[in-house]
Amino acid sequence: MEKESEVQVKKVQGAMAQLSHEELVSHWEETLSTPRRRYRIDAKILFSLLDFLYGKKRTLPKFKILELVARVPYQSWEQVSYIAITHTYERTNLARKIFNRVTESRNQQDNEQWHLLILEDLITKKQIKESKIKYWVIPQIIAFVYYQLSWLLYVIRPGWSYGLNADFEDHAQHEYALLVKENPEWENEPFDSVFAEDYAELDTVADLFRQISYDEKVHKEESLDKMGHPRFV
Ligand SMILES: [Fe+2]
Ligand SMILES: [Fe+2]
Q1: Which of 4, 38, 151, 178 is the most buried (most CB within 10 A)?
Q2: Which domains does the chain have, with CATH numbers?
Q3: How far away, in angstroms, is 169 Cα from ligand 2 center?
Q4: Measured in angstroms, how far is the CA atom of residue 87 from the centroid of ligand 1?
């Protein structure tokens, strides 16, 4: 029988681009000097709720919650697209366009999944204690509600759902950039994770979070781009 350590995971979307240390620093500085988006009311409520439940302080367990929630819009878009495909299979071009949208959503989910797994790995290594109710049960409830909201907005008007996600990704991009700034000791801490090969080879923990911040920026730009187009074009 195959041992757990020997299980091979099919290569899926790792980092959104493999950047050098210099490029990562340049993107990071740009993020720190760029103002945030003017967030929508639903995004503001979500960020306030997360601050209320997990504190304003940027901690690794709080970022784990962010990543748990981050996958949700992509899952809801994927599900709506699959439903749409079943009704359009006779129109080949439209079905292909919808399937392309499914693939994009899945790539983003995979990318967010690596963020989540790497954070969980770091939290375990640093022996940070988390209560099960606060860091497992409550996040599942938040993710469930956020899924319904993303799904509903996407069905009514996709631009609303993409707009909400753009705010979420912009928030994540800036939060990760500030996390690096607040933890200068990470510039010398080697990035060592069982998921490094799947995600990206990076020298330090500081560069890891710069890379994740860059990924969130790419997610944001993709959502902003989609906002201007009809559902499946
Ligand atoms: Fe993420
Ligand atoms: Fe993201």
Answers
A1: 151
A2: 54-227 (1.20.1260.140)
A3: 5
A4: 32
